[in-house]
Amino acid sequence: METESDVEVGLWDGELESLLLRVGERFGRVEPRRRMRDYVRGLLGPVGRKNSWQLAEHAGHATPYGLQRLLSWCQWDPDEIRDDLQDYVAERLGQPDGVLIVDDTGFIKKGTISAGAQRQYSGTAGRTENCQIGVFAAYASAKGRALVDRELYLPKSWTEDADRCRAARIPEGRSFATKPELARAMVRRALDSALPIAWVTADAAYGQEWHFRRMLEEAGVGYVLAVPKSQQVKSPAGSWRIDHVLTGAPAEAWERISCGNGAKGPRVYDWAAAKLPTIDGCDPTHDRWVLARRSLARPEEIAYYLAFAPADATVSQLVRVAGSRWAIEECFQAAKNECGLDQYEVRRYVGWYRHITLAMLAHAFLAATAAQAAAKGDAETVPPWFRSPWQKSAGSWQLAMHASPARRFASMP
Questions:
Q1: Residue 392 CA from chain centroid, whole number
Q2: How far apart (Å, rounded) are the C-alpha atoms in residues 156 and 185?
Q3: What string of DSSP letters covers 276-340?
Q4: Which uninterrupted H or E stretch holds 248?
Q5: Residues 6+ apart with CB under 8 A from 323
Q6: Share above pLDDT 70 across residues of the chain, in percent, rounded to a whole number
Q7: Is 28:75 a contact under the CB 8 Å cutoff?
Q8: Residue 155: enclosing H or E segment and its boundaries?
Q9: Which helix (H) or strand (E) holds 130?
Q10: How many CB atoms within 10 Å of residue 210?
Q11: Which of 29, 171, 176, 224 could be joined to 307 by an S-S link, Cβ 3.0–4.6 Å?
Q12: Dihedral of CA 125/129/130/134: which sign?
């Protein structure tokens, strides 16, 4: 007699088979198609360390050479699999108010042969390490979250060394690009895909980039982006440091709002938000905002954000988008722990993209099945002379800026 558990396993296997059939069309020959299926099933299976040796053993292969060839020499394009992945995530997790999240993560490596590896700061490790850095985009909605794009960051020590690039099979046309430039390319691809994206969010490394914000505004996409406390806020009257502006918020401007649930329940902070004055030539359908997030336990810890939002957006919506940035950290953790995102042993450029893309595919499958299960069960410091520009109008706080602090400095004796 078939049990409920048997039914669930059958549904799980049916969903995976459907996904593998979809991406299998990207392989012109049957051998690499079969190896891809074995590789993805191994990434999802109970394998201790998900490298080609242990994945081959799990699949019943006598040697790992077939899977190693899949990552190194077989003819297939991981970007085509990425496009299929984005379509799949759009179908399974897509919602009109979806958020695209950008961040990077480090992959600790030994030696100097792995493409892009050098001693550089890794936010994952919290220190400078010999590592590769991958810039990623994740999609998040009320249904779930999944990684949807990736780019390998290549430092100038690589792009300026043609012999080194050739040895790592880095394409000849691959020139140096900053992490924000890689992020912009991924955002453009995502906006051109089937993913329904209403918002973009990222940490200060990307939020402080004017070109990044400008691209989103020109596309008419809302954003809530973290910025450093020294970020300049511009208005027709001049510019201010964002921490000076927001420290001047009156006590009643701060609201206690949850920005989403974390591992220990709702993540509650004090938030202050205000619309910026309109600049001539701006999009009349959107407003620019400044936000501050203050820790309840340590009030001196304040994070700052710039936002671009539809005219009818509320503070709660902006807070929700800001809070959704943590979803990509959860994606990194799940993809590394459950799908071997960081357990590859490839050294060449093409191998990195192939392994990472298949690991993202496996993670997206887990996110989609979790969403199905949830749906089934009904789940989820200011100078003293600085006059406060905060004014309340029509139920929301706005900034009525006058002379810039920089100008006041110039006029002081």
A1: 34
A2: 19
A3: PPPPTTS-TTEEEEEEEEE-SS-TT-EEEEEEEEETT--HHHHHHHHHTTHHHHHHHHHHHHHH-
A4: none
A5: 258, 259, 260, 267
A6: 87
A7: yes
A8: none
A9: strand 127-141
A10: 9
A11: 224
A12: positive
Max distance between CA atoms of the chain, in angstroms, equals 90
The pLDDT confidence band at residue 407, using thresholds 50, 70 and 90, is: very low
| Pairing mode of beta strands 302-310, 396-399 | unpaired
Output the DSSP codes for 369-407: HHHHHHHHTT-----TT----EEEETTEEEE---S-HHH
Q: Which residue has the tokens 């994206």?
A: 197
Backbone phi and psi for residue 316, each to the nearest 5 degrees, phi listed first: -60, -40
- Hey, which residues does 238 pair with through a beta bridge? 235
Q: If pLDDT is split at 50, 70 and 90, which confidence band does 95 have?
A: very high
Do the Cβ atoms of 261 and 349 come closer than 8 Å? no
pTM: 0.89
Do residues 322 and 247 make contact, with C-beta atoms less than 8 angstroms apart?
A: no
Of the candidates 282, 332, 326, 286, the one whose C-alpha atom is nearest the C-alpha of residue 303 is 326
Higher model confidence: residue 236 or residue 299?
A: 299
The dihedrals phi and psi of 38, each to the nearest 5 degrees, come to -65, -40
Secondary structure, 3-state, 59-124: HCCCCCHHHHHHHHCCCCCHHHHHHHHHHHHHHHHCCCCCEEEEEEEEEECCCCCCCCCEEEEECC
Q: Which of 272, 269, 270, 275 is nearest to 307 (CA)?
A: 275
d(CA 27, CA 366): 23
**What's the residue count for the chain?**
413
In contact, 322 and 130? CB cutoff 8 Å: no
